[in-house]
Amino acid sequence: MTVTVPSKINVHLAVGPARDDGYHELTTVFQALSLTDTVTVSAAEESSLQVRGEGEKAVPRDERNLAWRAIDVLAEHLDTTPAELGPVQIALEKNIPVAGGMAGGSADAAGALLGLATLWKLDLSRDELTRLAAKLGSDVPFSLLGGTALGTGRGEELLPVLTRHTFHWVLAFAQRGLSTPRVYKELDRLREAGEPPPAAGDHDVVIEALASGDPHRLAELIGNDLQIAAVSLRPNLRRTLRAGVEAGALAGLVSGSGPTCAFLCEDAESAVQVSARLSGAGVCRTVRVASGPVHGARVVESDGGPPGGEPPWDPTPPQAHA
Ligand SMILES: C[C@@](CO)(OP(=O)(O)O)[C@H](O)COP(=O)(O)OP(=O)(O)OC[C@H]1O[C@@H](n2ccc(N)nc2=O)[C@H](O)[C@@H]1O
Ligand SMILES: Nc1ncnc2c1ncn2[C@@H]1O[C@H](COP(=O)(O)OP(=O)(O)O)[C@@H](O)[C@H]1O
After folding, report:
1. Which fold has domain 2-162?
2. Inter-residue contact 241 to 249 (CB < 8 Å)
3. Is 8 a catalytic residue?
4. Where are the domains of the chain?
5. What is the pLDDT of residue 30?
6. Is 139 a known active-site residue?
7. Cβ < 6 Å from ligand 2: which residues?
8. ipTM, two decimals
9. Which CATH superfamily groups domain 167-292?
């Protein structure tokens, strides 16, 4: 059973104060991008986890791996044990940077959940799968859903946003990842020390700009409250952000908690040009071109049965209005 899962960027990320449970209340606009991980799950004699590709050495191979934890979450939901469900082999083909603010671990978790639910022919509704996804992490429900969505709560409460237009992005991967909790803590620290002005404005206008399909309009509105914290921890991100715009992008921002920088480009051709210039600028480890929105976790190859091209749920959930 093979599942592809998108990465994400937050075109808008407004961070509220820390809650009693340690999470921050968010208003965010997610967009799923064409840079994807592939998760393959199969019944095996013995359980195993293989990881190949981008950042493979930095990915945990034990029970800390989010894809692996999907087994425990499914077993708990079914009131059984992983041993009862049977040994499985999980293989991750990674393209999404590890600890890069693009939800790579979340993507693998969503892919494993969908893959295992399909492999084991579990009768789970979309809502059930989404609830299980939220147990694995705040971003995992979005990795399942994909597209463009408004996220609230800790990021797990989603309202899909209808967008007919494709946007073109250039992604600058950094040498090393950044820890998400560390970046949230740094924002708290900066706020205690003097309240940096919010970078993210009003989400409604961002959704309108997405609906208009006009990248120039969107470029003026993208913003991420975590950017100042990521830049405080990695000051050289300032140079990367500047270099993307100098290379011809309309605007750039840190993706989620960073350190990946995402640059919005006028069109596909411009994205290729910007990526070539940015590669030559020597301000990051790797440059990739991606577009969005794309669909969420999707079974692309199943053993025996027809490929489950669409998720096994109602494809038209309620939508936010632009
Ligand atoms: C910042 C964001 C923006 O989409 O993405 P990434 O940069 O990680 O991709 C997310 O909020 C990351 O979501 P995710 O990576 O799933 O986080 P979780 O595993 O749920 O939480 C990890 C830790 O991040 C902090 N956290 C996460 C979400 C949130 N709303 N408030 C928080 O303060 C908490 O310290 C938590 O213990
Ligand atoms: N399948 C996975 N792929 C990548 N990282 C994983 C995975 N499972 C667990 N992790 C852990 O989660 C951390 C955050 O990873 P990731 O989801 O890639 O970044 P981010 O939260 O910045 O989007 C990593 O540093 C790694 O230790």
Report:
1. Ribosomal Protein S5; domain 2 (3.30.230)
2. no
3. yes
4. 2-162, 167-292
5. 98
6. yes
7. 59-60, 64-67, 92, 98-106, 108, 177, 180, 256-257
8. 0.98
9. GHMP kinase, C-terminal domain (3.30.70.890)
